[in-house]
Amino acid sequence: MKKKLSLLLLILTVLVVALTGCGKSEEKKEEKTAAADAKKLSICFVVTGQLGDKSFNDSANAGVSLIAKNLGYETKVIEIGRDQTKWQPTFEDLAESGKYSIIITNGSNAGELIQKVAPNYPNQKFILFDTKLEKNIPNIYAISYEQNEGSYLAGVLAAMVTTSNMPGTNPDKKIGFIGG
């Protein structure tokens, strides 16, 4: 799951950069590419909670680290804790600063708040992971996971491995599952 989220964030960032650089002519493309190079993408990941949970927050943080390391973009991680009275002022301050191209946060915790804040900052892009939007807000991209699909594929793979001659497989041809 950690690698999946990290890869998803990396791919999403690359797509945002690619879409931002599109133009109608080669000349405009070159101008936009030069402008993009002049101002590299900057990302702020706002943790609604703390790091160290070995779950969503740490997985997203790993993705942000990969973006900084592999793409060279400026990144910042802010842990704002669980005190929700600090959340809105933090998001508003970040959006007003204009310093970050994208602000990323866990939508299951802060999704409702971001949907309230984002319309006031139409030039600021927000990414919410682990949530769906009920209404379309142009500067918010929401990522929702269909975990049952990944579980299904894991089951298919387990069945294929169990019936194969792969070394180390269970000779009883049994598959188990532990839910968390």
Looking at this protein, list some descriptive labels.
180 residues; alpha/beta; elongated
Describe the overall structure.
- This protein has 180 residues and is of the alpha/beta class.
- It has helices at 2-20, 26-38, 56-71, 87-97, 107-117, 147-162; strands at 42-47, 74-79, 102-106, 125-129, 140-143.
- Strands 2-1-3-4-5 form a five-stranded parallel sheet, sandwiched between helices.
- Helix 5 links the parallel strand 3 and strand 4 (125-129).
- The protein is elongated.
- The two termini are 13 Å apart.
Q: Please, what is the average pLDDT?
A: 80
Terminus-to-terminus distance: 13 Å
- Helix content, binned percent: 40-55%
Question: How many strand elements?
Answer: 5
Q: Tell me the number of helical segments per DSSP (H or I, 4 or more residues long).
A: 6
Tell me the fraction of residues in β-strands, as a range: 5-15%
Element-level helix/strand string = HHEHEHEHEEH
- The Rg value, from CA coordinates, equals 20 Å
Q: Give the strand line-up of the largest sheet.
A: 2-1-3-4-5
Instruction: Give a quick account of the main beta sheet: strands, pairing sense, barrel closure.
Output: 5 strands, parallel
Uncertain spans, ≥5 residues at pLDDT below 50? 13-25
Assign the structural class, choosing from mainly alpha, mainly beta, alpha/beta, alpha+beta, or little secondary structure.
alpha/beta
Task: Assign an overall shape.
Answer: elongated
